[in-house]
Predict the structure of Flavin-containing monooxygenase.
Amino acid sequence: MAGLAEHENLFKRRCKWVNGPLIVGAGPSGLAVAACLKEHGVPFVILERSSCIASLWQNRTYDRLKLHLPKQFCQLPKLPFPDDFPEYPSKNQFIDYLESYARHFQLNPQFGETVLSAKYDSTCGMWRVRTAVGRRQAVGRKAEAEYICQWLVVATGENADCVIPEMEGLEKFGGRVIHSSDYRSGEAYRGKQVLVVGCGNSGMEVALDLCHHNAFPTMVVRDSVHVLPRETLGRSTFEIAVSLMKWLPLKTVDRVLLALSWMTLGNIEKLGIKRPSQGPLELKNTQGKTPVLDIGALSKIKSGEIRVVPGVKRFLHGKAELVDHRIIDVDSVILATGYRSNVHSWLQGTDIFNKDGFPRHPFPNGWKGSSGLYAVGFTRRGLSGASLDAVKIAEDIGRFCELHGHPTKYTSKWALKHSGDAVFTCFFPSWRIHELALPEAAFSALPHAAEGHEHMEATTTTFPLFEAYACTLAANMNTKNAWTSLEEDAFFHEKDPAKQNYHPIQRWDMSLIMFEIHRGFCIVFRLQAFDALVHVKP
């Protein structure tokens, strides 16, 4: 018999069967998938590590942020933006829209729950997702849980974690250093020399905002970048590109965009900003690099209010030495160095994602992997691409449920009264299980286990297919174990020497086992990844 210490982790975390997809991430992409699943009548669970939906927008963006694209390209499926919203909604307006979206579809994510690992268990054909919840137990350890699901939707997106580059001497700099995710406004930087490292959309907008607060920004432009006007001739540049791509090849559209940019912005290479050799759309498709949509930063660069410098060689105390050997005074540093996917830190044993944490197959073919794994929000095409993938994922899972039956047929549920008897009903997927074997030792231990123990952690006997755990749910409970078979083809066998005193239950078409729990005493059954004690109702 295995020792208690060996199985201690079982009782540190609750094991939960999800009768539908498990969605990791409650950003716009995760919400979009959930809403589409709701339309198909498929239950789901959303896990979110932060305390709110769209935490990137709520907790890691600057105050002046607006959507870079017109609202019709940023709305989620099934619910458009309100008519009175402007063409480019503000940060707060977009957050309000997402919160109303979640309320409208009653999505109800589980907040404060971080996924530690997710791995497909080929033996039982399920995903095992281990999490840590934000609250702490009385003993001071973080509570853990394990979710078991047939489908796993990765919705953590392209911007899960900040990118913090290693820069020589930064620890000796002495001034304030933050990532742009911690920047809110330039109010705290009035009159200061601020070095903005990075020239993407965030770097450009942070530098522009610093100008509006009478700071003196210097922007580090290390790599080539495409800068396009947000609007051309009164129309969204993105909208023009979308229209042209219906009729023209991508490279031709790129040439048109660059011509329009030259007409509107002039030759930006004179400002110290080099353009890549590939066109803006081609570069986006092949490398995922988003062109900067200018909303006023270039005019500040032309006027000298924003200085442009090449890369930083090293930092000194209160200064920065540039790669061209100039030394400039710096009071603060803002790292507008972007974000990255964190998929590889927790998703195990799958090759759907490349080394950078993006689907190996580019849009529109990167949304589906194998074994019930899906990805949404990795299209490198913003919210419109994520919405298209969300619709496909929900349709795919909904189609499976229509063909094979609704997953709620195979859920588990339990009820425990404060006094008297309680009934524990457990539904197993009948296509997964053909034989369950119950160790004799588990039964023989039960009457003695509860006596004198406030909580007994585990009585365990393990063999290849099945593990049986005995635990008390309350103190000083009497024990009664009554098994009732609800299927004629389910029956107990006599002692079988070949199975070493196990009592197998043959379930060739098993759909239901029921047994009683008397005054809080039960046996928790675990079939590989499946523990039927706790059931999550989406």
In short: The mean pLDDT is 74. The chain has three domains: 20-160+341-408, 163-338, 412-536. The domain at 20-160+341-408 is CATH 3.50.50.60 (FAD/NAD(P)-binding domain). The first strand starts at residue 13 and ends at 18.
